[in-house]
Specification:
Layout: E1 3-7, H1 12-24, E2 28-32, H2 43-48, E3 56-59, E4 62-65, H3 67-78, H4 89-119, H5 126-142, H6 156-170, H7 179-191, H8 195-213
Parallel strand pairs: 1-2
Antiparallel strand pairs: 1-3, 3-4
Length: 219
């Protein structure tokens, strides 16, 4: 039985779940949610997720939201001995640290800097841009001496971070000052299962959204 996924493809957190499902060969039954039309506020959706956020999954009656929680659940239930979420305590802790860094630092710093520009017409904030650059510098340092984000094998950390980094890149923010990030980004694009279907298509939708909403003077 396929897992129901309520999602918006341009959303980085939604693409995390798509990437993880592709890596695990888990079948999803996709349900597009039009956030701008307020579909997430409909009573039926609120019964599944009172926070009315995407992504949300329903697996045999079990509802879950928050992309990294969903990712861990999918691996724990369907991953078997998958290296995506290692069982060794130290290896798993490193993956968790990278996941927490992504959701707590890197993605929020991007969102705080960029989304006001496309959704509210705000001017670019130099201080917020500097915080985002600092986040990318942290990631560049984390990757020093590592093939992937948390070691020599792909893990949930890579699939989460690549959704964020690809979104940063799609927003026109240069990664060239961070050679470890560039090298890692190219590697994950080549090696993440079904990358283009799971993440690449959503990136194109994100680019189209940015082009449509960004003030013309900024294009």
């Amino acid at each position: 039985m396929a897992i129901d996924l309520y999602y918006t493809p341009g959303s980085a957190p939604c693409r995390v779940v798509l990437l993880v499902a592709a890596a695990l060969n888990v079948q999803l039954n996709p349900h597009l949610v039009n956030l701008r039309a307020g579909e997430q506020l409909q009573p039926d959706f609120l019964k599944l997720n009172p926070q009315h956020t995407v992504p949300t999954i329903v697996d045999d009656g079990f509802s879950l939201w928050e992309s990294r929680a969903i990712s861990r659940y999918l691996v724990n239930k369907y991953g078997g001995d998958s290296p995506l979420y290692p069982t060794d305590p130290k290896a798993r802790a490193l993956v968790d640290q990278r996941l927490d860094f992504d959701i707590g630092t890197l993605y929020p710093r991007f969102a705080q800097y960029f989304y006001p520009q496309i959704f509210a017409g705000a001017s670019a904030d130099k201080a917020l841009h500097g915080k985002l650059q600092q986040g990318l510098k942290f990631l560049n340092t984390f990757l020093e001496g590592y093939k992937y984000a948390a070691g020599n094998e792909m893990t949930l950390a890579d699939l989460s971070l690549v959704a964020t980094v690809s979104t940063i890149d799609a927003a026109g923010i240069s990664l060239q000052e961070y050679p470890n990030v560039v090298r890692w980004f190219e590697l994950v694009k080549k090696t993440a299962p079904n990358y283009e279907e799971a993440n690449g298509k959503g990136i194109q939708e994100f680019k189209a959204l940015v082009k449509n909403l960004m003030p013309k003077s900024e294009l």
